[in-house]
Write a sequence for this structure.
C-alpha cells in the first residue's frame, strides 16, 4: 500500500458563523487532511504536536480512521495550538480572531522511521520551517510533495515560506493568498509567478466558486457543488488538500490529467466538510456517500456539444 505523510496543525478551534458558535472543538489542518485522506486505500501518518490538554478521544478518533499518530508529539504541560475564526454572511470570507501557537512555537518535527520513504508528502498548514524540516528528514525522494499554506505565514515568515515553496511540486492556496504571494491581481498571472517560485502545479482554491489547476500554460477548473446547507467552511481547504493528495497517493499517477481527477476528489470531500460544524460531518461520512456525490459532480459538469 502506498504511503502518505501528512504534516500540519492538530488543534483546538473556536468558530463563529452566521448559523452558530462553537467552543474549543477539534480542528487543525492535519486533522482535516487526515480525515479526508482516510477515504483512500493507503497508509497515512500525521506529524504534529499537541499539549497534554488535548483529549485522548480526539487522538483515538484519528487512530480509528487508520491514521498512524506516532508522529504526533504530546508536550507535557504544554498548550495545544488554538485558532479562532469569525465568518461573514457570505461564508466565503472570514476574520482570524486568535492564533495562539503555543506548543507549535518551538516544535521540532520527527518523521516516523517507516514514513521516511513515503510516496506522497502533504505539507499542511503550519510554520514553513517545520515543513522544510520534514522534507530534510525524508530518506527517499517522494514522488510528489504538495504544500498548503496561508496568509498568516506570508505575514510572519515569508523568507522561510519562499524557501520551502522552492522545494515542492504542487502548491494549494486560496485566491486571496495567491494574490498576496505573487503581488498580481489576475489569478492567471499569479499562478505563472508562483510557478516561477518552484511548484510546477498551482492549485488556486476559490471557496464556493471552485478550484483552478495551473500547469505551464494549461488550466483546468473544477466547480464546487452547489449545496443546500453550508454551516461552517472551516477545514474545507485542508479537506480539499487531503482529498487531492490522498487520491494521488492511492493512484500513483502524477500526470496533469490525473491531477484533474484529484481536484474533483478534493472538491467532493470538501463539499461534505462544510455541511456541519468542525470535523463532525467528516467523522460520520461513508464511502457510499462519497461515491454518490462524485456522480453528481460528473453530471454537474458534463455536457455534449459539437464543435
Ligand atoms: P481552512 O479552513 O482549510 O483554511 O483551515 C482551517 C484550519 O486551519 C483550522 O482547523 C485551524 O486550526 C487551522 N489553522 C488556522 N490558522 C493556522 C495557521 N496559522 N497555521 C496552521 N494551521 C492553522
Amino acid at each position: 500500500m502506498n504511503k502518505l505523510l501528512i504534516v500540519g496543525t492538530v488543534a483546538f478551534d473556536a468558530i463563529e458563523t452566521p448559523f452558530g458558535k462553537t467552543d474549543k472543538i477539534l480542528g487543525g489542518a492535519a486533522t482535516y487532511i487526515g480525515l479526508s485522506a482516510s477515504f483512500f486505500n493507503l497508509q497515512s501518518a500525521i506529524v504534529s504536536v499537541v499539549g497534554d490538554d488535548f483529549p485522548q478521544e480526539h487522538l483515538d478518533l484519528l487512530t480509528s480512521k487508520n491514521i498512524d499518530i506516532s508522529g504526533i508529539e504530546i508536550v507535557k504541560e504544554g498548550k495545544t495550538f488554538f485558532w479562532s475564526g469569525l465568518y461573514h454572511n457570505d461564508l466565503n470570507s472570514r476574520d482570524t480572531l486568535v492564533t495562539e501557537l503555543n506548543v507549535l512555537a518551538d516544535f521540532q518535527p520527527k518523521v516516523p522511521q517507516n514514513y521516511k520513504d513515503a510516496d506522497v508528502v502533504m505539507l499542511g498548514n503550519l510554520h514553513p520551517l517545520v515543513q522544510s524540516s520534514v522534507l530534510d528528514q525524508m530518506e527517499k525522494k517522494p514522488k510528489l510533495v504538495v504544500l498548503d499554506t496561508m496568509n498568516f505565514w506570508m505575514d510572519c515568515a515569508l523568507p522561510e515560506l519562499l524557501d520551502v515553496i522552492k522545494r515542492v511540486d504542487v502548491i494549494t492556496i486560496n485566491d486571496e493568498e495567491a494574490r498576496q504571494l505573487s503581488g498580481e491581481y489576475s489569478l492567471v498571472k499569479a499562478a505563472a509567478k508562483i510557478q516561477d517560485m518552484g511548484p510546477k502545479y498551482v492549485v488556486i482554491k476559490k471557496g464556493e466558486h471552485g478550484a483552478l489547476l495551473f500547469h505551464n500554460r494549461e488550466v483546468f477548473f473544477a466547480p464546487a457543488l452547489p449545496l443546500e446547507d453550508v454551516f461552517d467552511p472551516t477545514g474545507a481547504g485542508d479537506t480539499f488538500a487531503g482529498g487531492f493528495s490522498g487520491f494521488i497517493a492511492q493512484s500513483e499517477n502524477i500526470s496533469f490529467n490525473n491531477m484533474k481527477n484529484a481536484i474533483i476528489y478534493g472538491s467532493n470531500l470538501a463539499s461534505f466538510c462544510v455541511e456541519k460544524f468542525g470535523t463532525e460531518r467528516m467523522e460520520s461520512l461513508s464511502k457510499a456517500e462519497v461515491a454518490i456525490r462524485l456522480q453528481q459532480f460528473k453530471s454537474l459538469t458534463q455536457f455534449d456539444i459539437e464543435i
Remarks:
- Residues 3-301 form a domain with the UDP-N-acetylmuramoyl-L-alanine:D-glutamate ligase fold (CATH 3.40.1190.20).
- Residues 179 and 185 are 6 Å apart (CA to CA).
